[in-house]
Amino acid sequence: MRERTRMIRRFIRKVLGRTGFGGFDGTRHPQHEPRIIPHAQHGISRDDIHPCALKVTRTLRAEGYAAFVVGGAVRDLLLKREPKDFDIATDATPDQVRALFRRARAIGRRFQIVHVYCGADTIEVTTFRAPPEADADALHQQAADGMLLRDNVFGNQVEDAARRDFTVNALYYDPHDETIWDYHEGVADAKKRVLRMIGDPATRFREDPVRMLRAARFSAKLGFHIEAATRAPIAQLAPMLERIPSARIYDEMMKLLLSGHAERGVHQLRAEGLHHGILPILDSVLDNPDHKPFIHAILHDTDRRIQDGRSASPAFMLAGLLWFAFKVEWQAQKAAGLPDSAAAYEAMDIILEQQRKWLAFPRRLDPMIKEIWALQPRFEFRNGARPFRLLDHPRWRAGYDFLCLRGHSTDPDEVAATELADWWTRFEAADDAERDTLLVTHASGEHKPRRRRKRTNTPEATGDEGA
Are residues 111 and 212 in the same domain? Predict the structure, then answer.
């Protein structure tokens, strides 16, 4: 009986077209006609589009398929921002797309997409998709609470626009005639700097709870305010994030923390109550007046690096967010009788594993986080050969940058970090004679070490190890 029902539905779709069916909540809505906006009104030229994206659209169009630059790239160009990625939407199926390009690969199970490669560049190509239907089959699976588990039901451009998340992300740019196809007043919302969900917000958040994190991220990144109706269900539905695979949560959080707008993003997460199941540590550090300046310094420094076009490390960010939790656990392990060094490494393992329950960052980040933490006590030793050995450490720059940021904390245990950072800044820049005068001489009359050649690396030369 179930299979017969599916066959009837497919026959009706074939005869009437999928747009005869309802919206995401099962209610019927009329088919939208797009507002087609000419180049003279929006100002986006095909010269603004990545050459690889132009090649993909031209190839698809030459074979009779529709092909549009879609989503964030169109939004960013409207806002006079430089897009990070150029995605393509088409009516060609993934198999048809792959057949047209020598270097192309289909990826994903939940949403199947095709990556087309042009040298070192990758263009993501998606087939127009339709809204979820009540009948679940191999292509579309939906949980009882509305969460989409798998969604590879293809549709037309009207439906594809309706199933995108926010109006400003449902804009289609045609490089052929330089027009924007706007189905949901996304251009107007971009001008008003408002983030508005397409369809019923609660239903859309249930389909994919990660959209709540995306709302916080886009709001922070773009400086948009979240529309009241879009924001309303977030607090109630936030616990649904616990069901999202930890790898997806990590990817979305790294997009937020390494967006160049991490400070605003973290505050937006807290404002929406979305951090409890992801970064619960934020409450303890941001509510502590002594710890809060350090966390802000970490976030601000990371934002500045990214905005300046420099790299930033997820490990450095995590080391900062978890620093005070690590220190507390370190003291607990020492109180339990472990020697200082053993207590430190035991505390590192405990804190990283505790945090990984909420935010499953890859274990490949652990060594750098641990090294940054382990270097901090070594900065206290400013006599003998130890300062020279520390300058040669491969993580010197990351550890030093971390020490400098610790100086922003007003925690009594962190006050010495400011003086230490100042000493190490002078020591690194000094010549051999000056370094001899800077070395701390112990009462025991310890001999000064043999002079060593001054390092030539600068903060900029190794800055990718830092924030």
Answer: no
Does 277 fall in a domain?
A: no
What digits encode the pLDDT tens for the residues 411-465?
Answer: 888 878 999 999 999 999 999 889 989 997 643 444 444 444 444 444 443 334 4
**Active site (annotated) includes residue 25:** no
Check 85, 137, 200, 366 and give the catalytic one.
Answer: 85
- Band (pLDDT 50/70/90 cuts) for residue 100 is very high
Q: Please tell me whether residues 67 and 211 are part of one structural domain.
A: no
Q: Which domain holds residue 245?
A: 202-268
In a domain, residue 308? The reply is yes
State residue 151's pLDDT score.
53
Position 275 in a domain: no
> Does residue 11 register a pLDDT over 50?
no
Query: pLDDT of 140-179, one tens digit each?
Result: 455 555 554 455 688 999 999 998 999 999 999 999 999 9
Are 212 and 338 found together in one domain?
Answer: no
The number of distinct structural domains making up the chain is: 3
Same-domain check for residues 30 and 74: yes
Mapping DSSP onto H, E and C, the string for the chain reads CHHHHHHHHHHHHHHHCHHHCCCCCCCCCCCCCCEEECHHHHCCCHHHCCHHHHHHHHHHHHCCCCEEEECHHHHHHHCCCCCCCCEEEECCCHHHHHHHCCCEEEECCCCCEEEEEECCEEEEEEECECCCCCCCCCCEEECCCCCEEEECCECCHHHHHHHCCEHHHCEEEECCCCEEEECCCHHHHHHHCEECECCCHHHHHHHCCHHHHHHHHHHHHHCCEECHHHHCCHHHHHHHHHHCCHHHHHHHHHHHHCCCCHHHHHHHHHHHCCCCCCCCHHHHHHCCCCCHHHHHHHHHHHHHHHHCCCCCCHHHHHHHHCHHHHHHHHHHHHHCCCCHHHHHHHHHHHHHHHHHCCCCCCHHHHHHHHHHHHHHHHCCCCCCCHHHHHHCCCCHHHHHHHHHHHCCCCCHHHCHHHHHHHHHHHHHHCCHHHHHHHCCCCCCCCCCCCCCCCCCCCCCCCHHHCC
Q: Of 48, 76, 87, 303, which residue is the catalytic one?
A: 87
Looking at the fold, whether 209 and 298 belong to one and the same domain comes out as no
Q: Are 38 and 172 contained in the same domain? A: yes
Q: Are residues 432 and 303 in the same domain?
A: yes
Domain boundary among 192, 215, 232: 192
Identify the CATH number of the domain in which residue 34 sits: 3.30.460.10
* Stronger pLDDT, 459 or 41, i.e. the higher one: 41
pLDDT tens-digit profile of 215-246? 999 999 999 999 999 999 998 998 898 888 87
Catalytic residue among 91, 151, 165, 208: 165
Please check whether residues 138 and 225 belong to one and the same domain.
no
- Is 87 marked active-site? yes
Provide the pLDDT for residue 5.
41
Stated pTM of the model: 0.76
**165 annotated active-site:** yes
Question: In this structure, is residue 60 part of a structural domain?
Answer: yes
